[in-house]
Specification:
Helix content: 25-40%
Shape: elongated
GO molecular function: phosphorelay response regulator activity; transcription cis-regulatory region binding
InterPro entries: CheY-like_superfamily, OmpR/PhoB-type_DNA-bd, Sig_transdc_resp-reg_C-effctor, Sig_transdc_resp-reg_receiver, WalR-like, WH-like_DNA-bd_sf
Protein name: Stage 0 sporulation protein A homolog
Number of domains: 2
CATH topology of the largest domain: Rossmann fold
Distance between the termini: 36 Å
Keywords: DNA-binding, Phosphoprotein, Transcription, Transcription regulation, Two-component regulatory system
Number of helices: 8
GO cellular component, one term: cytosol
CATH class of the largest domain: Alpha Beta
Length: 233
């Protein structure tokens, strides 16, 4: 049975190469899309410019530590769940990590089974509920993941693969501006030869189909990207 056309994307910030590789491999085995980095400044850049569903954040990083990374992410109003992973096990360290913006705090060494249980728990708390939801809804839109069937009011629309990824993204992040780069990354991965007007063509087709059926608007935000919002018609 078909479900989501993309998998949860996780930013893994860890400078211990063997541990980083082990976690990344396990994430891949569990059908997560992992992007890795090794220092705090890069983590801040990726977290504030990319679209991630969860961040695994080591505390002891070269340069900028994980506490500062978490605080900076939260100051940018980015509410992506953060799980701190660290050898610092004193209660004061845990409190400081959570107060810095982490949603959970896991002490090394840890069992991978516990790490993935905590990942699943955090993803269940996000709007899309990747592990559980068969249907995503916004206004009069109802989208069934198993068969890629979109219902707008009483009208049923069957979507192609790219349209399905787009509507799923917009429904998982309603009211949030998704940048062109974020959308292109989810549609085509790291392919570098995709033009902006290819993305715009897919969005225009989806927008027209929603408009004809009386659905919400996909609004272009000049210089930023696109946002799903209540219809102004």
């Amino acid at each position: 049975m078909k479900r989501s056309l993309f998998v949860p994307r996780i930013l893994l910030v860890e400078d211990d190469t063997p541990l980083q590789q082990a976690i990344a491999d396990m994430l891949g085995d569990e059908q997560y899309d992992a992007q890795v980095c090794t220092d705090g400044e890069e983590a801040i850049f990726l977290a504030t410019t990319g679209l991630y569903d969860l961040i695994l954040l080591d505390v002891m990083l070269p340069g900028t530590d994980g506490y500062h990374v978490a605080r900076t992410i939260r100051e940018q109003k980015i509410m992506t769940p953060i799980i701190m992973i660290t050898a610092k096990d004193h209660i004061d360290d845990r409190v400081y990590g959570l107060d810095s913006g982490a949603d959970d705090y896991l002490v090394k060494p840890f069992a991978f089974t516990e790490l993935f249980a905590r990942i699943r728990a955090q993803l269940r708390r996000t709007p899309g509920e990747f592990q559980l939801a068969d249907t995503l809804e916004f206004e009069n839109l109802h989208y069934r993941l198993p068969d890629r069937e979109l219902t707008v009011g009483t009208t049923t629309i069957r979507l192609g693969p790219k349209e399905a990824i787009l509507i799923e993204l917009f429904l998982r992040y309603p009211g949030i501006v998704l940048t062109r780069q974020q959308l292109m990354d989810r549609l085509w991965g790291e392919e570098s030869d995709i033009l902006d007007n290819t993305l715009e063509a897919h969005i225009s087709r989806l927008r027209r189909r929603l408009e004809v059926s009386g659905g919400p608007d996909i609004t272009a935000i000049r210089g930023l990207g696109y946002r799903l919002e209540k219809s102004g018609r």
